[in-house]
Amino acid sequence: MRIFIGVDLPESLKSDIFQLEQKIQEQSNKGNWKPADSFHITLRFLGEIEETEVKSIAEGLRSEIKGFKPFSLNLKGGGTFDAKGEEQSNIRVLWLGVDGDLKALNRLYFQTECVLDALCYPRDHREYTPHITLGQSIKLKGGLNTLAPYFKTLNSSFEVTAVTIFISEVVSGKRSYRPIERIEF
Hints:
It is a single chain. This protein is α+β, with helices and mostly antiparallel strands. It has a single domain, classed as Cyclic Phosphodiesterase, Chain: A (Alpha-Beta Complex). It has helices spanning 11-25, 51-64, 102-118, 148-152, and strands spanning 2-8, 28-33, 40-48, 71-84, 90-100, 131-140, 157-160, 162-171, 174-184. The protein has a 5-stranded antiparallel β-sheet, with helices on both faces. The chain has a 4-stranded antiparallel β-sheet with strand order 3-1-8-9. Strand 4 (71-84) and strand 5 form a beta hairpin. It is globular, with a radius of gyration of 17 Å. 26% of the residues are buried.
């Protein structure tokens, strides 16, 4: 099973993000765009693990985040990983930024890492950059700066009340993310 841990988003927010994504698609020549049901904030990607390991991870998370208080986040701006070209029009990953109670989100990330450390999963040494991926391998018609007005149109806040374990699988030739375990605070 290909697994990751993250924060699932409310369906209404996923719908708003999808509408924004469609507007941005009009400003691109190509890209691999995420479907609405795939929007989330990743806390930690684990990759391939055995199905039996999911139970241990869920139990560890349940114990570690017990007593954690719900907190609010909102969407703010956008960005890229590895944008290239004269106007940064070739983009490996295009994402929406996250703002709000980042202290609580980072604490949730840290507690997730503690659970995984205790279960002997190797640590991810990249800096944690919370975001919501819109698409990958994107070629914009104009430069990256043409997207700034679109990112300003989405100002939605939402409450984080749980951590979700997702399975990442290929369905009908497309990558799909499906919640398999939800751990409420």
